[in-house]
Amino acid sequence: MGTRLERREEQAAEIVDRLEEAYPDSTISLRYSNRLELLIAVILSAQCTDERVNTETEHLFEKYDGAAEYANAPQDELAEDLNSITYYNSKAGYVRDSCQTILEEHDGEVPDTMEELTELSGVGRKTANVVLQHGHDVVEGIVVDTHVQRLSRRLGLTEEERPEAIEQELMELVPEGYWQQFTHLCIDHGRATCTARNPDCSDCVLADICPSEKGDSDVDLASGDDW
């Protein structure tokens, strides 16, 4: 039986405590060696698995070195280098355009503010948050990917649907010192147990405080659909 704790702040703290115990080594799964590689990897990860991105960037990062090489690469060639990535044509354009802006406006360095990052092609607040947190050690928000979106709704932390609105609500509930780690914990738990289509509620460390738990609830609060 799953019952959310009375106060959402308590619910958020309990979720963090339990998931930290379950996933003590939780961290970012994208592979990169500098800020530009991080930015490119996150752009490529939109609607694509990190595993697939890591496979693709292994050779991509060997071929291209620095913003100028990406900016000057022919669109068709760069797209072909990314052809196993979802929406690879569009993402090739985002990478080229972003690197051009980085060269022209930021002296070839990946910028370190939310405003400047979100002005880059293909970069929204989620991508900017990842780059700030892992590239610049700046934590000013919570990365809301599909796992965070799904789990935060299932667990009764929010009823919002848009990532931006979910982030603002989570920032009021999750202790600020855990803003970065909260995302990684949700991703690990979302992959291992609380999957989108068939969550394993019988083996979930959060089942007793989850209002979507299948043994007690008829509705998946993430989607609003019946189980």
From TrEMBL:
Pfam families linked to this entry: EndIII_4Fe-2S, HHH, HhH-GPD
The UniProt record lists the keyword 4Fe-4S: yes
Occurrences of domain HhH-GPD (ranges): 44-192
One MF annotation (Gene Ontology) recorded for this entry: metal ion binding
Keyword Zinc: no
Residues that, per the record, bind [4Fe-4S] cluster: C194, C201, C204, C210
Keywords per UniProt: 4Fe-4S, DNA damage, DNA repair, DNA-binding, Endonuclease, Glycosidase, Hydrolase, Iron, Iron-sulfur, Lyase, Metal-binding, Nuclease
Catalytic reaction annotation: 2'-deoxyribonucleotide-(2'-deoxyribose 5'-phosphate)-2'-deoxyribonucleotide-DNA = a 3'-end 2'-deoxyribonucleotide-(2,3-dehydro-2,3-deoxyribose 5'-phosphate)-DNA + a 5'-end 5'-phospho-2'-deoxyribonucleoside-DNA + H(+); Hydrolyzes mismatched double-stranded DNA and polynucleotides, releasing free thymine
Assigned protein family: Belongs to the Nth/MutY family.
PANTHER family per record: A/G-SPECIFIC ADENINE GLYCOSYLASE/ENDONUCLEASE III, ENDONUCLEASE III
Entry protein name: Endonuclease III
Lineage, top ranks: Archaea, Methanobacteriati, Methanobacteriota, Stenosarchaea group, Halobacteria
Gene (name only): nth
